[in-house]
Amino acid sequence: ALLARVPAAHRPVLERLRAGDTFEEIAAATGVSVSTAKRVVRRVREGVVVDAHTFRLVTTPGALGKRDSI
Fold it and tell me: How far is CA 25 from CA 7, 32, 42, 45, in A?
């Protein structure tokens, strides 16, 4: 459910994190830097997700329910 609310560009980072990959493995596999992978995860946890193509806010702080998980 959470992945459906996350921009498509961020989904591979979250899927790999859920699979147990380290941030270094995620970065290598997805072509982003380690800091970008961490930023994606941090923003999802904070409830702030911006679409990478439109730069529009997708969710707002507190919008993710407590039951949502990555």
Answer: 20, 10, 17, 20
* Nearest one of 70, 59, 65, 64 to 15, comparing CA atoms: 70
Q: What is the secondary structure of 13-30 as a DSSP string? A: HHHHHHTT--HHHHHHHH
Coil vs helix vs strand at 43: helix
Prediction pTM value: 0.68
Q: What is the pLDDT along the chain (70 residues), one digit of tens a residue?
A: 677 777 888 899 999 999 999 999 999 999 999 999 999 888 888 776 666 666 565 654 554 454 445 5
